[in-house]
Amino acid sequence: MAEIAITGLSKIYGDGTAAVQDFNLKVADGEFLVLVGPSGCGKSTVLRCVAGLEQPTSGTIAINGQVINDLPSQDRDLAMVFQTYALYPHLTIFENLAFGLKIRRRPQAEIEREVTTVAEKLGLAKHLRKKPRELSGGERQRVALGRAIVRRPRAFLMDEPLSNLDAGLRVKMRVELLKLQRELKATVLYVTHDQTEALTMGDRVAVLHLGRIQQVASPKEVYDHPANLFVAGFIGSPAMNFIQARIIRGVEGWFLEMGGQTLALPPAFLEKRPGLSAYQEKIIIAGLRPEHFSVAVTKEQANAVLQIKVEIVETIGPVNYVHFSLPDNSADQNQVSLVASLDPAVPNIALGRDLELIFDPHQIQFFDPKTGSTLSPRITQA
User: Fold this and answer.
1) Are residues 161 and 27 in the same domain?
2) Same-domain check for residues 340 and 360
3) Which domain holds residue 13?
4) Cis before 318? omega within 30
5) Peptide bond into 266 cis (omega under 30)
6) Nearest CA to 93 among 52, 120, 130?
7) If 0-12 CB within 10 Å is exposed, 13-18 middle and 19+ buried, where does residue 290 land?
């Protein structure tokens, strides 16, 4: 397989649009690395540059230490799987799978053997004489994957390959694709805008925004310790809650002013979060994920009790998404909307009801309101 190293990559189009800027990334041999970000962030441009479908403005792309910038795409020995499947409608499934081997003039016996092996692996053996129009979306996606696999390339480049599938099939194909990648020990550079795909599939995740990498880390690290406001807000569903806050000194210790309420902080809070020391008495952004809230039963359960009024309740299987608002001078109409993920078994969660929510202050992320940078990592073990 292959190691892919991208160094100082930039792509600026003729109209001055900078699609990718100073992009640096290394994909290890056998790694499944996911590029994730919103539409227009530059992730597909990176993939196209690696594939040889776009010429970088600057920077280098190397495979196993060999710079390939000037190699034609057909000589890079990379397989690309597209969102649209890109199957030949007039060819049978066998012919689609065999196409890459035929243009490389492989012996017919080898073509028969390789296509049959891959078709059986992907559950396509009974469809080899059919045309693409006779298959379902999931089956056509497996043909597109099979056409890439049968070539035994050095690495796979995948551009949102599951986005055209319905939700249930997408989950199934994620599992199938991961099993296949593990079996092949394949190097995969995978592009998606779906952060659920990124978190469930990637060995590592690279988060892009406006053509620049914001963070590269394991899915857990990106989720638990986002590098900045963008990563914190983009990764996670429902998204992280953000609200203006201030850490202040009181007679009995440190307090957090947030949402028009003053909440006690645990002893030695600032000692455990030294990055916050310079921000005492200053406006900062507090971020708290919805799942870190729970309903107070006794006030001794936690240091922080937040008084809210329920505005909307969405019940989705094993969770209630409870929406509420709190005062925030930075928000529209001086109110910010927040959401808590709560257990549906908890009584008295209904529209218009008052609730007391509790959370562990050590779980709060804090961000600089000007730069968006994380001020101090949250404490995962309080």
Assistant:
1) yes
2) yes
3) 4-233
4) no
5) no
6) 130
7) buried
